[in-house]
């Protein structure tokens, strides 16, 4: 059975209090006007005046229902209604004043002198409004503030911050007590907003607030810069202050902020950088009306590429993947199903892949299908070659045969100075498609009649680092380990990685496809690398726990093929700028196509026979900078005789 709200004061009591205030205000008006001279007051028919006052006010109070509102929730609208009613009452008194002496001449003084009415108007508004505000404040203190046990401060004293403070303070179900705003805006620092002071958002003030018992910082600025958020989080974690965020006000449920809408800051927000704004209209021109093939479409990167492509109105997207269930989930999650055709197929199956090109004749190929897990590929190098290298070779050759306009391949920072089979396999892919493009372009140029030749497929590569939230990445793994009570397993105390978001990574892929002229390897400014152990500690603290005390961190040792620091460029490489300072083109060593084509065919032949050691030896011949690390293949790097 639903519980009913207890009404502390019935409406009729409020009605009687309001009438009492009317009588008191009218009496006070005469006393003040006549300087408390009783003899002067006796010249007026005070009983009759008070009776008229009661009658007129009673009628208007009932008509406008000013007594019906809940006093403890008095708002600006209630105040406006009271002012309107009292204005109307005074106008009626003036009307009575003008009529009464003329119709019934008793020789007595006027009923409602203008000066008395002015004092009455001010007095009655003061009484009716002030007692409501007093009750509201008293109720708020007795039944709300005293119950609130968590002291908090709000970052942002702007519109969003003030609104969040009001909602949190007025919500009786919330146990949060806001004691201050913190701000970076110089114009607001030092001000008092709704009885709450605004102080500078710095470490000294946060330390003082912490000593005063502050346990929580609420971020109310939806547009806070990532670096500023990181700074505040670092200060709060050091002071053992929890951090939560409120969604922007347009996302509030029924225009109300409920306690469960306060969310903890997550690690992805701290690793994200401020959005890099790229306004390249060429992307839209490249995609609009085109038939686009995306391999690995059910994966983290591939599915986001599909989603972003839909914004540019392609004719059709062929989403190809070998994983049935994820591909099905992708198809039912998209709003533009008619423009997306799912195609189950293994990129190593040339006949199956050729069916895609025969049926759909794609104009652009985004190749995101690959085996990516380093330790697993170290155990199964032949599988890495068959999927990553043979699959890429098949798709690249079919793209040339079917006159595909552009072929954009997703590569990795692990292809730079590779220390593992996975990274080396991706470097082989880069070498193949670059040399293939150069061979086709040179051949056509030598023929002299480029117009008579089919268009040259432009092969483009993109490299980037670890992607936040991608399948099998470190953050989902840490979250799972946290839920299980730890320990968080880190391979090495010094291991670092670059991070970027999935949308950011896919934006790079589309940009590369748009600006690429053929043969380029695009690299992305990944910002600063992150120490994985620091990442683990921060995740533990964000969960409200203390590293090593509540949740242990365990160092398991580098996995096979893993290196401490990832690179985006080879030492022998340099870069060329593009139109955007965050996107660069790597200058890499060029290979003779005939030689590399023969070498890769031999490599694939070894992989098909699953000769593991021979396969790795051949990879090292093709990629001489491939030096194995923490792997059984390290012995292959030892020169003979040593």
Automatic annotation (TrEMBL):
Report the InterPro entries cross-referenced here. NAD(P)-bd_dom_sf, Polysac_CapD-like, Polysaccharide_Synthase-Rel
In the UniProt record, does the keyword Membrane occur?
yes
Show the stretches that span the lipid bilayer: 12-34, 49-70, 112-134
Q: Where is the Polysaccharide biosynthesis protein CapD-like domain?
A: 292-586
Keywords assigned by UniProt, alphabetized: Membrane, Transmembrane, Transmembrane helix
**NAD listed as a keyword:** no
Q: Which family does it belong to?
A: Belongs to the polysaccharide synthase family.
Protein name per its UniProtKB record: Polysaccharide biosynthesis protein
- This protein's species is Taibaiella lutea
